[in-house]
């Protein structure tokens, strides 16, 4: 059974995220305005938009890091919009995250072995069993076994992102929120990390919410794509269609923002992008 024939693993229904006003005369800021989408097991849904569009806020809401003002988040049929602290902690084994900057999310004073075994030892997995699991994960993400004895600063940016992916996988999650996971990497390293994410998905069946501002990156691994603009989804559909032949002016502007090698073609794209108006 493929992903499109299965019941959703995650359903976001009418999600509103609103932050309190600053100062007594301020008004609340509504970052997400009634958004809805779903993700099936083993599927990647790309969530794309420029900075401030609300895409990362949705990822934070799924992780319990942003307030759900209205609407529902259902995970495997369970409403997890407002979980208890204990349930939120339990959900971390099912929903994990890979951030943009792997170095800031890795404790610089801990070895890679300690970083990766920590979530397991917290759950009272025996040390030997935890180390075996970590060695298997290091092999999965293409890092040498001796990485367990090294510190994060001893690795390149791409290698640290592989460590972050291994850490996200250590508890066998069913969904990983990938928040701009390759935007800080050079193009060749980006491709290697994207290939790794695809390989991991094929091997484990994990689902991804892939948050990015780059249509060309989202095209690489998304089965379906939703485009965010000012807190709302303005276009959605099959990944190839949305990233190659978009219908909404905002999505077309995003596509035209992607650089091309030919300077003349790039100049034409810039001119066309300036002519496109986006509804307010």
Could you explain how this protein is built, in words?
Strand 7, helix 6 and strand 8 form a beta-alpha-beta unit. The protein is of the alpha/beta class and 280 residues long. It folds into 2 domains: 171 residues, P-loop containing nucleotide triphosphate hydrolases (Rossmann fold); 65 residues, no CATH class. Strands 6-7-8-3-9-10 form a 6-stranded mixed beta sheet, sandwiched between helices. A 4-stranded antiparallel beta sheet has the order 2-1-4-5, with helices on one face. Helix content is 38%, strand content 22%.
Strand content: 15-25%
Q: Give the overall shape.
A: globular
Low-confidence stretches: none
Question: What is the overall pLDDT average?
Answer: 89
Helix/strand layout:
Blueprint: E1 10-19, E2 29-39, E3 44-48, H1 55-62, E4 70-75, E5 78-79, H2 85-91, E6 95-98, H3 112-122, H4 127-140, H5 157-169, E7 175-179, H6 187-204, E8 207-212, H7 215-221, E9 224-229, E10 232-238, H8 239-244, H9 249-257, H10 263-275
Parallel strand pairs: 3-8, 3-9, 6-7, 7-8
Antiparallel strand pairs: 1-2, 1-4, 4-5, 9-10
Helix pairs in contact: 3-4, 4-5, 5-6, 9-10
Keywords:
280 residues, Rossmann fold, globular, 2 domains, alpha/beta, six-stranded mixed sheet, 10 helices, four-stranded antiparallel sheet
Task: Write a short abstract of this structure.
With 280 residues, the chain is α/β, with parallel strands linked by helices. It has helices at residues 55-62, 85-91, 112-122, 127-140, 157-169, 187-204, 215-221, 239-244, 249-257, 263-275; strands at 10-19, 29-39, 44-48, 70-75, 78-79, 95-98, 175-179, 207-212, 224-229, 232-238. The chain is 38% helix and 22% strand.
């Amino acid at each position: 059974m493929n992903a499109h024939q299965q019941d959703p693993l995650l359903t976001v229904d009418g999600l509103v995220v609103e932050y309190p006003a600053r100062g007594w005369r301020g008004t609340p800021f509504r970052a997400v305005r009634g958004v809805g989408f779903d993700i099936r097991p083993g599927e990647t849904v790309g969530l794309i938009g420029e900075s401030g569009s609300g895409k990362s806020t949705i990822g934070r809401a799924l992780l319990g890091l942003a307030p759900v003002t209205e609407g529902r988040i259902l995970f495997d049929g369970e409403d997890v919009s407002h979980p208890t602290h204990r349930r939120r902690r339990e959900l971390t084994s099912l929903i994990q995250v890979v951030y943009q900057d792997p170095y800031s999310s890795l404790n610089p004073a801990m070895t890679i072995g300690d970083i990766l075994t920590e979530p397991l030892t917290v759950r009272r997995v025996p040390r030997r069993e935890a180390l075996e699991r970590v060695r298997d994960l290091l092999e999965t993400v293409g890092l040498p076994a001796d990485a367990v004895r090294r510190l994060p600063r001893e690795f390149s940016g791409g290698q640290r992102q592989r460590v972050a992916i291994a850490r996200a996988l250590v508890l066998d999650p069913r969904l990983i929120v990938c928040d701009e996971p390759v935007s800080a990497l050079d193009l060749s390293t980006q491709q290697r990390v994207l290939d790794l994410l695809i390989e991991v998905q094929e091997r484990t069946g994990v689902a991804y919410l892939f948050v990015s501002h780059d249509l060309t990156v989202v095209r690489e691994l998304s089965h379906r794509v939703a485009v965010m603009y000012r807190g709302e989804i303005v276009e959605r559909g099959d990944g190839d269609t949305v990233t190659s032949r978009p219908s909404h002016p905002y999505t077309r502007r995003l596509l035209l923002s992607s650089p091309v090698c030919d300077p003349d073609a790039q100049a034409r794209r810039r001119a066309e992008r300036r002519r496109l108006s986006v509804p307010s």
